[in-house]
Specification:
The protein is an alpha/beta fold and 466 residues long. It has 16 helices and 18 strands. The chain is elongated.
Length: 466
């Protein structure tokens, strides 16, 4: 890669915002960014560039990269290897190496001939402890505990190196946004070098042209201009708040949300986790619970299936129906209820849901099915336990943008009579239907008193299921 390419002469390899990031050698720098604009890729080049400088007499330091999951870490190291090859640096990829806190992890290392290494790390903050050298914290706000990650990673650059933090937002109360607010409005005591690139910024600096070159011939984006591509991305998002956070660097307002983004983030399954589990493979002694928010044309019908195990509630399926006849929805419900592991279901029986719930109760009994009328008081009784479950990390949910949008969309407001009501904007993605389906599933899991006791006789005595 020539100096002319790096500095923008002729057809530059990197876009202006990527070059600015690469050439910033600040001790601490933060990139507040839109999704999928090539920042992790250009950071990989930046690290390799620094290791190349070490080969020319610079101070020998390793680099440690924390990605949100193992797959992203592996891709990052692979990108580093490609850039090492372009720059003519002798480097080889090594799997394992014992640097991960998880013995099962297939961690990656890029080892350079000069003795330095770029090491991938687990997303667990404790994996940063005791390691000297430069740090890259990729998708920082998406880590389970960003504050702890920063606290353990920062001392690692005491004896040299740099700290690079790259992320999209995850709510206004996330530590990533705290760092940005401190740097922007509170005197920047940490002397952080700030970078910010929205989707609009990237498009204005040539991102779409680069994207078109990478896409296969005939792709729908090929004929779009910047305005059409911008509208395509915006219209594909779950809602406007999601678009603003994911692509325009505007975090969700956690002050107005009933469940803060940080609490949701801590309850997400890891991105590479196989969280779905068919009830058809469950044992009779397993404990599954179902919540159903009923819709037909305007809203969605959502079936949320939880499994209770070791005091935790694990999401095992989220089934969404849109413009689906009730007969098909009933068939799906009855298939689930046939299995003895499904202990209890709570069904929204407001309006259209009344007949749906009544028919299920007639067929499977009121000890297994509860119909719930959505009133202000019942919504309050559903919403607060759900918030408590998130606060105490008592459940696991999939990392899905539509689910996160539904959970974040619920706002608590004072009614004209002085009471509390829960509201959400209606959109093409529904009316917070996933929120209420999950709240109903949680209610089903908590309602144990109405269930019959079943004792299983075993050699060692009696085992009570619930």
């Amino acid at each position: 890669m020539t100096a002319a390419e790096m500095n923008g002469g002729g057809e530059s390899f990197f876009l202006p915002y990527q070059r600015k990031w690469i050439l910033d050698d600040s001790r601490i720098k933060i990139m507040e960014k839109s999704r999928q604009i090539g920042l992790s890729w250009s950071t990989a080049y930046d690290l390799v560039r620094r290791h190349a400088a070490t080969a020319n007499g610079g101070k020998a330091l390793d680099s440690w990269v924390s990605s949100r999951d193992e797959m992203q870490a592996s891709l990052f190291i692979s990108d580093c290897k490609k850039f090492a090859d372009i720059l003519g640096l002798a480097a080889r990829e090594i799997s394992g190496g014992g640097i991960s806190d998880d013995a099962r992890s297939n961690s990656k290392i890029l080892a350079f001939e000069n003795g330095t290494r770029i090491n991938s790390l687990s997303s667990n903050a404790d994996a940063q402890a005791g390691k000297r050298g430069s740090r890259v914290l990729d998708e920082f706000a998406l880590h389970p505990d960003p504050m702890k990650l920063y606290a353990i990673a920062y001392p690692g650059i005491t004896w040299g190196g740099s700290l690079q933090i790259i992320s999209t937002h995850r709510g206004s109360m996330n530590f990533f946004n705290t760092l940005l607010e401190e740097a922007k409005h509170k005197g920047n005591p940490k002397k952080i070098s700030l970078h910010r690139v929205t989707l609009q910024d990237a498009l204005e600096q040539g991102f779409l042209k680069k994207l078109k070159r990478a896409l296969p011939a005939g792709h729908e984006v090929s004929d779009m201009d910047e305005a059409a591509y911008f509208d395509r991305i915006k219209n594909s998002c779950a809602d406007m708040e999601s678009f603003m956070q994911e692509y325009m660097c505007v975090p969700f307002d956690d002050q107005s949300a009933f469940i803060p983004s940080d609490d949701i983030q801590k309850c997400l399954y890891p991105p590479d986790c196989e969280w779905r589990k068919s009830i058809s493979h469950a044992r009779a002694e397993d404990s599954f619970y179902l919540g159903i928010d009923v819709g037909r044309s305007r809203d969605l019908s959502v079936f949320w299936l939880l499994e209770k195990s070791d005091g935790m509630l694990f999401t095992r399926d989220v089934i969404v129906f849109k413009d689906t006849p009730f007969s098909e929805q009933e068939a799906a419900l009855y298939e689930l209820l046939k299995h003895p592991a499904l202990r209890r279901a709570a069904i929204d029986q407001t309006g259209l849901g009344r007949q749906f719930a009544e028919r299920a109760i007639e067929r499977f009994g009121s000890t297994r099915i509860e119909g719930v009328n959505f009133t202000s008081s019942t919504k309050e009784a559903l919403a607060y336990p759900l918030r408590s479950a998130f606060e105490s990390c008592a459940l696991k949910i999939p990392d899905d943008i539509q689910i996160r949008a539904d959970l974040r969309s619920i706002k608590r407001q004072a009614s004209a009579s002085g009471g509390i009501r829960f509201s959400a904007d209606r959109s093409e993605s529904g009316h917070a239907d996933r929120f209420w389906a999950l709240a109903l599933a949680l209610r089903a899991a908590k309602e144990n008193l109405a269930q019959p006791r079943i004792d299983m006789i075993r050699k060692e005595g009696v085992r009570r299921l619930w």
